[in-house]
Fold this protein.
Amino acid sequence: MSQQDFAIGIDIGGGSTKIGLVSSGGEVVERRRIVLGNDEADAIVGQYAHAIRDIAAAHPHARLRGIGIGFPGRIHPDNLSGDLGNIPKLDDFPLAERIGGLFGLPARMENDGTAAGLAEAMFGKDKNARRLLLIAAGTGIGVALTVDGKPFITSGGGLGNAGQLIMHGSDGRPCRQGCVGCLESLASGDALNGIAQRYCDEVPQSPLAIRARDFGREADASDVVVAALEGDPAAKAMLADVGRWLGRGAATWAQIFAPDVILLGGGLSAAGDLLLQPLEREARMCGLDMYLRNVRFSLASLGNDAGMIGAAAQIFLNT
Ligand SMILES: [Zn+2]
């Protein structure tokens, strides 16, 4: 076996943090998952460091180039810390600097959506795209662009907050980030949770409502995806509606950033064509043909590991 370089990728999610040993070929060879309680930043560093030591001990011959962090928020210009993340204790905390210092390795922080886009651009099936735009439709909506394999940054470590396109404006609902009537309030996992719950209140005998009751909880976006894949027409209609909203976003982003590939990733992309087809149809119907005709729409290929692989990939790209 030829000797490969490796980097640690840390993907900080809302519920848990994934930490993996990633090869320079994009392969995850070892992984840990950490569920954080209400810990202080120093305790979080301790837990991450413990997992990294554990992983390194399992691969003593791996040549470690550095530690990359994917952070779900805005990234400060030094790529060592961020804010507006979903773990308030880590806001403005020099996480990359602290973890890098503990191991004597280069460390760097990237926005998690940007990291996922970088992973798709370096290792995904569309890695040959010149301008690749990733729509990460999960709890929120992240949008990332890579140009010639490198992240394209406008502000905050990504394309600003491009998931917050204002669609309904003041006639709409607030999103969890605080703007009103934006795309995220209409077409994210968070939005779909609300859509599913309102539908189940109105139609308590629907398969979706019965399914949620069986689990003893309210229906959420993941129930909608599962029900739609099982053929439930109401769930399919909800996804088609979400897809159309995302398609309007995609058309707008295509007109600004001129991608040659638009990938749909994030948790909602588990719905596959049930989401991608209405998205593409609406984008082509609404957007200017001169921007849309050369765009290929596809599902992202690295799934849930994209954030972790991309977090490590920023080390291969920048050190
Ligand atoms: Zn918003």
